[in-house]
Design goal:
alpha+beta
């Protein structure tokens, strides 16, 4: 075998070995940097007002992935009256060592939310899910998109076939697009209202103006309360189109409007609802004596007719902490932070 033949025989093998060695070095460097950041989480804030703690971890995924599995994973977010804490038995994140700056998250096992209310009472809500998946995409300015999906959510307060939450930096750079939905929601007896305990669908789609107020938060440089306060002072608004409630044995409500925060950090604004199915619900429940929102809808139905499509108008508003349906006060709003 001459020199030329040996070259063409061994060169591809040598090239593959070189590429493999380079990938190994690059992966080890990326994994080492990630380990340093994870070590720092145990003693420092992940970002202002947010701490992350965990019991144990392992890193794998060579040669192109970074896969981290945690046990006893906890995220704590500071509020004005104590931390809000999410805990899960198992948590994992997955990222590529190259290409798009996207991270995928998974959680499993027993989970819980813990918080303290404005009166100082502590609460714990245990829950589990068939699956919990989320993803985060970053750009030069920080987080540009976050998506969350829970399947088969179960808790003492409510269950749901599916829950989704999506937020992204809009293409115009001036707003944030928001989408939240819940399908097949079943409420506990404590939360059951006049319209029953089954919601086929609850959905909110909208946009948040003055997105620049959240730039430091997206970049992990600001406490969420400082960011929301900056947004309130801009002033910023949440434009809702639509907000929907579809009850299994009650009316359907589809509304649009806008909300902001007043000087007391309470919601204020108007949502113009179109309501269908109210006469049918009243006919099925002639002895019902609801209160609050349902009572106001009943009174509205007795005073106003429906259009040709069977829809009744009802304007929900909040001003100076008082919630109204039309001219009828139906409750009060509390500060968000």
């Amino acid at each position: 075998m001459n020199y030329s033949s040996r070259f063409f025989l061994y060169a591809p093998l040598a090239l593959l070995l070189l590429i493999g060695a380079a990938c190994g070095v690059y992966w080890r460097q990326a994994a080492g940097k990630l380990e340093q950041r994870l070590d720092a989480l145990q003693t420092h804030e992940a970002m202002p007002g947010v701490t992350v703690r965990y019991g144990a971890r392992s890193i794998s995924g060579f040669p192109f992935n970074l896969d981290v599995v945690f046990s006893d994973f906890r995220v704590s977010v500071e509020t004005g009256h104590g931390p809000f804490v999410w805990r899960t038995e198992k948590f994992a994140l997955h990222a590529l060592t190259y290409g798009a700056d996207k991270t995928i998250f998974e959680a499993a096992g027993n989970q819980s939310f813990a918080w303290t209310d404005t009166d100082g009472h502590e609460h714990v809500l245990p829950f589990d899910t068939g699956s919990l998946h989320a993803s985060a995409i970053r750009n030069a300015g920080g987080l540009s998109r976050f998506d969350l999906e829970l399947i088969a959510f179960g808790s003492p307060a409510l269950t749901a076939a599916q829950i989704e939450f999506h937020v992204r930096h809009a293409a115009d750079g001036k707003s944030l697009d928001v989408f939240v939905s819940g399908n097949g929601v079943h409420l506990s007896p404590r939360l059951r209202g006049a319209f029953g305990d089954e919601l086929k669908l609850v959905k909110l789609q909208g946009s948040i103006s003055q997105a620049a107020a959240f730039d430091d938060l997206r970049g992990g440089k600001s406490d969420w309360r400082k960011a929301v306060e900056a947004w309130r002072n801009k002033p910023g608004r949440l434009r809702v189109e639509p907000l929907e409630f579809h009850w299994l044995n009650g009316p359907d409500l589809v509304g649009k409007g806008a909300l902001s925060l007043d000087d007391g950090r309470r919601p204020e604004g108007l949502i113009d609802f179109k309501v269908t199915g109210m006469p049918d619900w009243l006919a099925r429940n002639p002895q019902m004596e609801p209160d609050g929102f349902a009572a106001a809808l009943r009174d509205r139905a007795s005073k106003a007719g429906s259009d040709e499509g069977g829809r009744m108008g009802a304007v929900f508003g909040i001003q100076d902490s008082v919630m109204y349906l039309g001219d009828d006060p139906i409750g009060t709003a509390t500060p968000l932070y």
